[in-house]
Design a protein that fits this description.
Blueprint (H helix, E strand, L loop, with lengths): L2 H50 L14
């Protein structure tokens, strides 16, 4: 392999590495948001289940008549 071909291949690999790094960073952000959303929905489902079973559910929400 000649030096020019090696340099071209190295430039290509660097670009691919940078692209993949950006993708991984974006996915990390998305996963964090999705984990927070799942935790929120899990809490809501538990609250709904407790309300349906007659258990007391206390939330920070203002009742609609206020």
């Amino acid at each position: 392999m000649n030096e020019t071909r090696i340099e071209e291949e190295l430039a290509h690999l660097r670009r691919v590495t940078d692209d993949l790094s950006e993708i991984v960073a974006r996915q990390e952000t998305q996963i964090s948001r999705l984990e927070a959303r799942v935790a929120y929905l899990t809490r809501r489902a538990a609250d709904d289940e407790a309300a349906q079973s007659g258990g007391a559910v206390f939330t920070d929400e203002t009742p609609p008549h206020y």
